[in-house]
Design goal:
Elements (H helix, E strand, L loop, with lengths): L4 E7 L6 E7 H10 L4 E4 L4 E4 L2 H11 L2
């Protein structure tokens, strides 16, 4: 079975360049349900970070729509 991916824009916290992240819908739902961090990544600085609460809520709206 193929895992469904959700692509969403993020901005690098260092230079504000916009990138597209892709995570599995099941991974996003599990993180939201358990309150676990959701990681984002920007290639420009090879940098990963946890999404802010408002970004988490935007993802929640997309996966539950």
């Amino acid at each position: 079975m193929t895992e469904r991916l959700l692509k969403f824009p993020v901005k690098c916290p260092i230079c504000a360049t916009e990138w597209t992240c892709a995570l599995s819908v099941s991974e996003i739902k599990e993180s939201l349900d358990k309150g676990n961090p959701i990681r984002a990544y920007a290639e420009c600085h090879d940098w990963g970070w946890d999404l802010k609460e408002e970004e988490r809520q935007a993802l929640a709206a997309k996966v539950r729509a």
